[in-house]
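User: Second chain of the day. Same drill as before.
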Amino acid sequence: MPKLPGNSPMLSRDGHPLTSLAAINRLDILEKEALYAKLLPKRLFRILQLNPFTFCNPAEDQLIRVIAPEGLSFVRIEVRARPEDTDVVFFVELSDTQFHQMELAFCIICDPTAPRFAVDVNEAGAVNYFSSQGRNLPEEVRAMQAGLFPHQTRRGLRMFGEFFTLLEQFTDSLGMEIIIGEPLSYDNAIRYERYGFDYLTGKRLMLEIDREFRPGGKLYQRLDGSSPFRMPGMGQTVRGRSWAIHDGILDTPWDEIRIYKMIGADAGINTFPDRRIEEQH
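Assistant: Same format as last time:
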């Protein structure tokens, strides 16, 4: 039974309980798309002038794509401002695990009207797969100076909180009790803490990062101006720390950080308690 107040079990059109993404994916296209549309914030529909039933704008362009193959416990939702756009405004990828948990693999929310920074390609113009295949340093510097975090091509819509509320309700309605994820960057991990996540792995590293960015710590000492991403004072903010970590300031790569959220519970984790307040994108 759902744990969130006012939430109810998810049922198919003919009244059968749905307890997994695989079960949803067995439904006909219109029914499963209607269920997955519950994950999309209402503000997104308003911004793009989308009909919530047809997924079309006033020009009758269908801007929402739901990829939910029958036989798989997986869904990807892509929303674009225009059908011909390569970039997405909203992107989420979910799967459910053998332990009956919801895995949030990726979530991207971008402002389509904001300037774009080509941090998603290397300096030769090839897709860099989140910087694993090279970086575009000039674009990263521009993005950082514009107030973005690592891997952001555009500023966001400040919509993650709205989406996450819907995800928690959706997960709860399937009878699942846990959402798991893997933060792509340090700022992602801090952001997830704000939404009540705890760590399966990586909490010790997060606490070490906080300690070592303080005056006298080894990361503090490495903020020596040797690159635009390692300027003195960057350890005071989430954004500054995240860019320094993206630049390789740690002794080991940022990897294997695993987090989880119990439905309806806030773990109360804060591994950067005295951070300087900054605008969140």
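Strands lie at 64-67, 74-79, 90-96, 102-109, 178-181, 198-201, 258-262.

User: Great, on to the next one.
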